[in-house]
């Protein structure tokens, strides 16, 4: 084991602070990565504050971060995918059992025995896994992604969670040229959803409650913007969408959105509202409509997403912060006061004692 600088929460109510953690030395299939940038996902905040205690109780100290981009510093003897000096990325998963039916088909995100990048039992070193708010990480090569050389590295970090979370359902449900696609909410997820739907060639409509987001939505690739509180604007689009990506994690009217779908249309949830949504069955029956959900993506699909971003020059719109400002960033995240993702410049961690 070796020591690495990191930022951790020591309880649900304590701010994140500088600390030292133990990482395993790279074994034969491992890649050691010097972390250059780490995105701040809303899950980081929920987890640091133990707000998902019913499903994923937090083990302290907790080192969040699963939008990791860096440079390979060391490889194990059996590593063939990377060499020292290569760019590399790590998302929400660092391991899985590799033997279950889901893993065999490349759906590691559904493996019943996966290991999440942080706050997950660490089958290799004991304790729990520690995430990307750290100077380095050691991950099995199968779970390390390649980063296209043309992409801005800070803007690439959020692709590892916000990017794959929005790309995967669009890929799965066949968003392409000729389809009319809605994206609900323009935050960290929604702004990626708009970029992907546009790059895939769809006619993109952003649904928002904030008229102030109109210009930004158009700049990001939306063809039209609908203010979802305006009944007339909503009525104009009723029954016309093939697919809607619902990125809202606050309580909202899912029945109004179901009314936007055409026959066989689908709404996919990627946000996670705390309260159960209330769905009127008739809104699904007439038009044979579907309501679905999707979490992150598998390794092969995540690489495909990164390659697609490389080919289309897609990155997230980010605000770069030093790690010393992470608690401030969390407070602003609660107020949705960021365009559109915070990314930590990990060089700042070197300045801590
Ligand atoms: Zn995330
Ligand atoms: Zn598995």
Beta strands, count: 16
Shape: globular
Mean pLDDT level: 97
Q: What share of the residues does DSSP label as strand, in percent?
A: 25-35%
Task: Note the quaternary state here.
Answer: single chain
Helix content: 10-25%
Number of helices: 11
Instruction: Give helix and strand order, one letter per element, not per position.
Output: EEEHEEEHEEHHEHEHEHEHEHEHEHE
Structural class category: alpha/beta
The major β-sheet equals:
6 strands, mixed
Low-confidence stretches: none
Ligand types: zinc ion
Compute the separation of the termini in Å: 21 Å
Description:
With 353 residues, the protein is an alpha/beta fold. It has helices at 42-48, 101-104, 153-156, 162-172, 188-199, 214-220, 231-236, 254-258, 282-285, 299-312, 326-334; strands spanning 2-8, 17-23, 30-40, 68-75, 87-90, 93-95, 115-116, 136-140, 180-184, 203-208, 224-227, 241-246, 261-269, 290-293, 318-322, 341-345. Strands 3, 4, 5, 8, 15 and 16 form a six-stranded mixed β-sheet that branches. A six-stranded parallel β-sheet has the order 11-10-9-12-13-14, covered by helices on one side. The protein is globular, with a radius of gyration of 20 Å. The chain binds zinc ion (2 copies).
Features:
353 residues, alpha/beta, six-stranded mixed sheet, six-stranded parallel sheet, 11 helices, 24% helix, globular, binds zinc ion
Write the layout of secondary structure elements.
Blueprint: E1 2-8, E2 17-23, E3 30-40, H1 42-48, E4 68-75, E5 87-90, E6 93-95, H2 101-104, E7 115-116, E8 136-140, H3 153-156, H4 162-172, E9 180-184, H5 188-199, E10 203-208, H6 214-220, E11 224-227, H7 231-236, E12 241-246, H8 254-258, E13 261-269, H9 282-285, E14 290-293, H10 299-312, E15 318-322, H11 326-334, E16 341-345
Helix pairs in contact: 4-5, 4-10
The structure holds zinc ion (ZN) (2 copies).
């Amino acid at each position: 084991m070796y020591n690495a600088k990191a930022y951790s929460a020591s309880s649900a109510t304590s701010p994140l602070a500088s600390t030292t953690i133990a990482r395993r030395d790279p074994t034969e299939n491992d890649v050691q990565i010097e972390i250059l940038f780490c995105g701040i996902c809303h899950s980081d905040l929920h987890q640091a504050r133990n707000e998902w205690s019913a499903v994923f109780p937090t083990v302290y100290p907790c080192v969040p971060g699963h939008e990791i981009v860096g440079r390979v510093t060391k490889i194990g003897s059996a590593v063939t995918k990377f060499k020292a000096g290569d760019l590399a990325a790590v998302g929400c998963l660092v391991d899985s059992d590799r033997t279950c039916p889901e893993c065999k088909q490349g759906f590691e995100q559904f493996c019943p025995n996966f290991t999440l990048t942080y706050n997950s039992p660490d089958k290799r070193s004991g304790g729990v896994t520690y995430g990307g708010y750290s100077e380095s990480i050691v991950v099995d090569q199968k779970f390390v992604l390649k980063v296209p050389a043309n992409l801005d590295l800070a803007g690439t970090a959020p692709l590892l969670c916000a990017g794959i979370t929005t790309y995967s359902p669009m890929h799965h449900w066949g968003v392409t040229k000729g389809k009319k696609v809605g994206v609900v909410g323009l935050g960290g997820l929604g702004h990626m959803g708009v970029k992907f739907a546009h790059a895939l060639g769809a006619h993109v409509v952003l649904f928002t409650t904030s008229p102030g987001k109109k210009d930004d939505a158009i700049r990001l690739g939306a063809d039209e913007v609908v203010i979802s509180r305006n009944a007339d604007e909503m009525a104009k689009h009723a029954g016309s969408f093939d697919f809607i990506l619902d990125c809202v994690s606050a309580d909202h009217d899912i029945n109004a959105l179901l009314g936007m779908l055409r026959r066989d249309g689908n709404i996919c949830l990627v946000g996670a509202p705390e309260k159960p949504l209330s769905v009127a069955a008739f809104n699904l029956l007439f038009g044979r409509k579907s309501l679905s959900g999707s979490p992150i993506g598998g390794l092969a699909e995540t690489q495909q997403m990164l390659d697609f971003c490389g080919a289309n020059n897609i990155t997230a719109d980010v605000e770069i912060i030093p790690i010393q400002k992470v608690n401030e960033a969390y407070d602003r995240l609660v107020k949705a006061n960021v365009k559109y993702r915070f990314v930590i410049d990990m060089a700042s961690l070197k300045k801590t004692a």
